Structures are given as structure tokens and as C-alpha cells.
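chain below, 210 aa
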Amino acid sequence: MTLTKTIVFPEIEKVIRAFDFESISAERKIILQPLIDFIQDKVTNQQEVRLNLICTHNSRRSHLSQVWAQTAAAHYTIKNVFCYSGGTEATALFPMAAKTLEQSGFKIKTIAEGNNPIYTIKYSENEHPIIGFSKTYDDDFNPQSEFAAIMTCSQADGGCPFIAGAEKRIPITFEDPKAFDNTPQQAEKYQERSLQIATEMFYVFSQIKS
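prediction:
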């Protein structure tokens, strides 16, 4: 059976074409390898791939990682991949993180206002949107078992040595763009972090043999 390739929005496709996997250091590729192995094992055994990307507040890095990982799976036609995100506490998806994704071509709609808005994030016309809002990693919205916990920040990685229900716990930490909030470099630094995460997630899925 031939799988139909997902067509992502043209603006996102343009961003993808600029990724340079050679820019990922050898040390970083070693850090990413356990995630590649986890996904490959699931794909080989025709099992669903569930990834829960976790940082402290589920406001920036974990959302960027969730969105780019889901998009990468679609781009490389790796089926039955379900990406989630969570925090050690719930806050809100930081508006700059959403704006940064919009600038890369994602179509974002706010479907519920309030202290913790709910967003739909689309990367393709015909694919199910990603639901973006802040929640704890063990929220009912997220899988309770048979998933990999990807620790995207060192604080959550250090503070959560055990994630209940996770088959595997994989630290892949990123620097926090929050350090540049309310500075002239804010937009540039969020974009830089988003593109680093995107490049690494696309590298991971590019290594999967279906």
C-alpha cells in the first residue's frame, strides 16, 4: 500500500527546505539517538508512537517540540505518531511561541480565551490540527501509558526523575528563549530556538525507516 504524502502549507515547506542536518553537532546527534531508536522500534513493530514532550510550564519549548515533531512525522509519512506536551505545572502557551510558529507558516486559531487559552495549530489543510494549551504532563488529555517522555528542559529533567506510565524517559533539553522576553532580541531568539527544535525533530524522523 502506498502512503499518501502529507502536503504541508507552502510557507512551512519553505522553512523545511532550509534545514541543515549538518548543523547538528555529533554530540547532539548522540543525545537524539535514543528518540530515534524508540520511534524506530515502534514503527518496525507496527505500534503507535506516542511522544509526550515535557518542560516546566508547558508554555514554550514543549509546545514548539510537540508541533514540529508532529509536522516532521507527517512530512516523512511516518504514520500513527501522536505528539503531546505537558509541564510539571500548567500556565499558558506563551503568545510569542504561538506567534513564532505562525511566522513559520502554521495556521493558528484561538478557540477558547482566558488565562490558559486553547489554540488549534494546523500544518496542513487536511490533517487534524494540533490542540495547544498548557497542562501538566499527566493531564487526562495526555496518554497515561505506552509513551516516551521527552524532557525538553533541564529543570523538568532534574525535577522529574520518574514519569508514571512512560516506557522510556529521554532528556533532549533546549535553552529557554524566555531569557530574552521583553528585550529587543525576543523575536529573533524565539525564532532561533524554534528552528533548532524543528531541525532536530526533522533529523530524528528523517532517520526512521518505515
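Helices lie at 10-17, 26-44, 61-75, 95-103, 154-159, 186-206. Strands lie at 49-55, 81-87, 107-112, 118-122, 130-132, 147-151, 166-171.
thats it, cya
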